[in-house]
Design the sequence.
């Protein structure tokens, strides 16, 4: 289970400090789909980064399958980092424009160093498999991000998130920049992957109807966080 317990996150210091998350408690179990809703500036994306082990909370704790997480970013244990994947809202801001699509998908496996990196044949096979699962056509593999559509690039980002077989997938406003049919297709893929791998999904969204229809539970960020935070990083 991915658990946030009394999580506080602030930005700045002294008189300029802003509290973005204030005592947040949230849990996502394997196989469960949980939505996080709240107005702009309520700390949804900050919560996503904290739960994805990219940022440390200023107070409170994150537990991952019973293990307390004491560090964030590259300082966190690789074995823990690979259990959680984050799918960003804007695929163009979340990708290296110098990488072709197949290289983008393979990036998490290539960045683990020689000790953890699959051999070239295995790497190619895993890229091909995960791209097929998300519906990414082989003719797109050699293209650069600027040569594919927003929906195709988000599929590539989803493939990149899934290639490490994460235990938990965090989707930060996944559908907000996509047309309705592309949204539905991506959500169907995520639902299938979550069911097949018993993975937990945290869907961060402004769309309350989507949250209530697609998720098992809807979590509303505390009003205090929304009222204190003027702007979310």
Sequence:
């Amino acid at each position: 289970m991915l658990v946030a317990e009394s999580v506080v996150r602030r930005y700045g210091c002294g008189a300029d400090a802003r509290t973005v998350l204030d005592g947040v408690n949230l849990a996502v179990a394997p196989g469960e789909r949980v939505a996080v809703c709240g107005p702009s500036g309520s700390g949804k994306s900050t919560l996503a980064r904290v739960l994805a082990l990219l940022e440390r909370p200023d107070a409170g704790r994150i537990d991952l399958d019973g293990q307390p997480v004491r560090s964030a970013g590259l300082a966190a244990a690789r074995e823990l980092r690979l259990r959680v994947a984050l799918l960003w809202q804007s695929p163009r801001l979340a990708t290296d424009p110098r990488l072709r699509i197949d290289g983008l998908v393979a990036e998490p496996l290539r960045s683990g160093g020689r000790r953890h990196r699959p051999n070239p044949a295995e790497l190619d096979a895993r890229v091909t498999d995960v791209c097929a699962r998300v519906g990414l056509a082989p003719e797109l593999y050699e293209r650069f991000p600027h040569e594919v559509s927003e929906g195709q690039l988000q599929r590539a980002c989803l493939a990149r998130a899934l290639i490490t077989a994460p235990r938990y997938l965090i989707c930060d406003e996944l559908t907000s920049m996509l047309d309705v049919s592309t949204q539905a297709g991506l959500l169907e893929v995520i639902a299938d992957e979550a069911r097949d791998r018993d993975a937990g999904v945290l869907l961060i969204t402004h769309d309350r109807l989507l949250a209530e229809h697609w998720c098992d539970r809807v979590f509303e960020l505390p009003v205090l966080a929304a009222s204190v935070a003027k702007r979310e990083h």
